[in-house]
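Question (not urgent): is this output format expected?
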Amino acid sequence: MAAYIASGGEFERDTDYITTRITADGRDGYPVEPRRYRLIVARACPWANRAIIVRRLLGLEPVLSIGFCGPVHDARSWTFDLDPGGVDPVLKIPRLQDAYFARVPNYPKGITVPAIVDVPTGQVVTNDFAQMTLDLSTEWGQYHREGAPELYPERLRAEIDEVARRIYTEINNGVYRCGFAGSQDAYDRAYDRLFTALDWVSERLSSQRYLVGDTITEADVRLFTTLARFDPVYHGHFKCNRQKLTEMPVLWAYARDLFQTPGFGDTIDFQQTKEHYYKVHTGLNPSKIVPAGPDLSGWLTPHHREELGGRPFGDGTPPGPPPPAEQVGGVRGGG
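Got this back:
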């Protein structure tokens, strides 16, 4: 996590990313090419989870390979401890840091996921998670599966951008602002901002199935990854405890609707998520004890959101099941 706590106790995220883009015309020197790049993620990370979901929904698995880091990293880097010998089988490196250093020797910023690596050179191309998923929708279009949804339709982009901006500042980043507040005043302000925004998005979703339009868009992907982590991590670990997600009826039903939609819940590993937050953030949890709860069986219960109308994939179709090597073992988040 690339961030710091500024004077006054306010959490601030370092947003100085490697912003090189992979585009259809290759204007940054990295043209879209099948099987040239590797998406490096960690299931625990909400920012990486966005890229996993979008890649699934668009059916880019055959052309963009994926590598999974383990849930726990050290001060230097995410590592490939889930792979045999602790080495990524394609990049042949034990640490994501190696791909960053190949691009920028002694790269001074955070070694973050998601990152896309150019396989021939072993160099990170980009770790700009916000632009990354938009480019998968717009620049990789010729490789989308038949029936892929429009996650970033041109006619709705202004509204998607507006909604996504508030979700990022107030909710996606808002939970971190609570968790890493360095003073009571900073925490109180962060808490109020977070739940004001959750109330806003709950009101918006009370009468429509999805955030923008009547189909799933990029905005829904961005909200979902925070909601999926709310009760297992943010409610307790980050002190976002006015209510649990399960006690916010509209958001709980909305989150279950997406979780039960192919491409969303099948990317979530609750156990890895808990291990990451509770073991890595030793300043918040010095014992590194990972909580046994909460009970996650409710994610598969009926949500009745279909009564609001809407079509999850518009004129498209759901993605098929994940490739065997990319499957998560059920709602309990087993390996």
